[in-house]
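stage 2 :: seqdesign
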């Protein structure tokens, strides 16, 4: 059986690093699943630009460093460059749905190009194509990805 390829939207990282309580724990479970090789995690380089804003506003170098360390290629984690292929795919997505914001279109295009089957996000406004299954950050996210009860 192949290891599922799962796209992580920016809000997964923010939940893990900046929230407290159960929601943060659930986001960490997903990240730990990637670290263990249970799933392959994928995100866009644009994620780094999005997560660094608040730490930079607050001059929080430790948090910025943590994000930079996490959002980097690793054995079971990939970052998709925002290159011409991603940008043209994002434009095609936006042409079909004008309400899709460019950053979100870049995320969706990156997920498609990386051949992800699951898109993890808390943002219900992001329009996803039929080939991407949306999952939120919950206690059951890993089980849902792996098809376990």
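stage 2 :: out
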């Amino acid at each position: 059986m192949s290891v599922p390829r799962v796209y992580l939207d920016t809000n997964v990282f923010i939940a893990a690093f900046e929230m407290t309580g159960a929601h943060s724990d659930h986001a960490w479970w997903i990240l730990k699943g990637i670290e263990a090789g249970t799933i392959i995690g994928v995100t866009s380089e644009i994620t780094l630009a999005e997560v660094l804003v608040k730490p930079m506003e607050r001059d929080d170098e430790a948090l910025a460093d943590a994000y930079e360390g996490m959002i980097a290629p690793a054995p079971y984690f990939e970052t998709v460059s925002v290159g011409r292929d991603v940008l043209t795919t994002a434009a095609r997505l936006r042409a079909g749905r004008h309400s899709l914001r460019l950053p979100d279109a870049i995320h969706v295009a990156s997920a498609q190009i990386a051949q992800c089957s699951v898109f993890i996000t808390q943002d219900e406004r992001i329009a996803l194509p039929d080939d991407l299954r949306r999952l939120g950050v919950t206690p059951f996210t890993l089980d849902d990805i792996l098809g376990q009860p």
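stage 3 :: structure notes
- The chain has one domain: 5-139.
- The mean pLDDT is 96.
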